Amino acid sequence: MTQRQSPTATIVDIHTHVYTPLFMEILRSRDAVPYIRSFPPDTSDRLIILPGEDSPDTPATSRGRPIGPDYYDISKKIEFMDTHGIDISVISLANPWLDFLPTEDALRVTQQVNDELNNLCASYPGRLYAFGALPLSGSVAEVIQEIKRLAQLRYVRGVIMGTSGLGDGLDDPRLDSVWGALQETKQTIFLHPHYGLPKEVYGSRQDNYGHVLALAMGFPMETTIAVARMFLSGVWDKWTKLSVLLAHSGGTLPFLAGRLESCILHDRHIMEKGKDEKRRTIWDILQNNILLDSVVYARAGLKAATEVAGSDRILFGTDHPFFPPLTNEEGGKEEQWLSVTMNYRAVQEEFEPKTLDGILGGNAIRLLRLE
């Protein structure tokens, strides 16, 4: 087991994924993205979740990613936690969640998967909580029905959502009653990217760079644009208590928040539209409605996140089981994950001890009600 990162803090990982048994079964049964399959002569399973990953022109090493027990065996999650000194994890499905389900199956399957998540938490009481999934390919009424049911599950503390919402983005007026139900039940939304940017923006040599452009650049910009659309459409003007946790420290939002606010104030179309003078600023929303995880791997990103949201709204995360160790010189796997130790190092270097305890766990315990 690694040395404790803080002698006093309860360490909470709020960004950590799992593919439940039913989710794995669904992905193995499919023949279109998203799915799991092997590509001969390699017989190992690969997880295909991003558009274009299974193209015959895509190099084998960029065709999805290897998927092993860390992705679906909850005992491996606990082993990972023990290795890295993590006391509590708030688990959630990984992308693409359940947005691809046929409409007629959406509610039933989502309920089954959420029950699996809750039962996994019950198998390790006190160590696991969860963000539930929503049947977003079903009807709005079904989404709201599941939100209300999730609020009754012992270990669920919110929901995970992608940026497409019901299929038309998070500024979709059809989501109004969904936001209302989430605010009423006091459930945090964990907003996570999936599609990134159109592949064309990366240029003709993108496959030379593995997944780096899509994950390092595409995901953060996807999050930034999605949240900007929520903000511009007045979601938080109407649902003033709606809490949203942004993956990867909010993408580029902390850095670009001032530019976003300035562009609004100088936009003639918005001015002529007569937007209500009581419009909340992006600064107000960042400081009162938005939480940011620490999955940004460096002090510079954490500094920007802290300046816009406040250190009491930054929560530690690992993004397990993604970004696993590659191999060491002897050909075996490193015991500790570089992706995790980078995050630990960044928060330890950026924050004073009293603040550090909040980042590592205290903030999550308070904000997500982790008794």
TrEMBL record:
<dbReference type="InterPro" id="IPR006680">
    <property type="entry name" value="Amidohydro-rel"/>
</dbReference>
<keyword id="KW-0456">Lyase</keyword>
<dbReference type="InterPro" id="IPR032466">
    <property type="entry name" value="Metal_Hydrolase"/>
</dbReference>
<dbReference type="GO" id="GO:0016787">
    <property type="term" value="F:hydrolase activity"/>
</dbReference>
<protein>
    <submittedName>
        <fullName>Amidohydrolase 2</fullName>
    </submittedName>
</protein>
<comment type="similarity">
    <text>Belongs to the metallo-dependent hydrolases superfamily.</text>
</comment>
<dbReference type="GO" id="GO:0019748">
    <property type="term" value="P:secondary metabolic process"/>
</dbReference>
<dbReference type="GO" id="GO:0016831">
    <property type="term" value="F:carboxy-lyase activity"/>
</dbReference>
<dbReference type="Pfam" id="PF04909">
    <property type="entry name" value="Amidohydro_2"/>
</dbReference>
<keyword id="KW-0210">Decarboxylase</keyword>
<feature type="domain" description="Amidohydrolase-related">
    <location>
        <begin position="13"/>
        <end position="370"/>
    </location>
</feature>
<dbReference type="GO" id="GO:0005829">
    <property type="term" value="C:cytosol"/>
</dbReference>
<keyword id="KW-0378">Hydrolase</keyword>
<dbReference type="InterPro" id="IPR032465">
    <property type="entry name" value="ACMSD"/>
</dbReference>
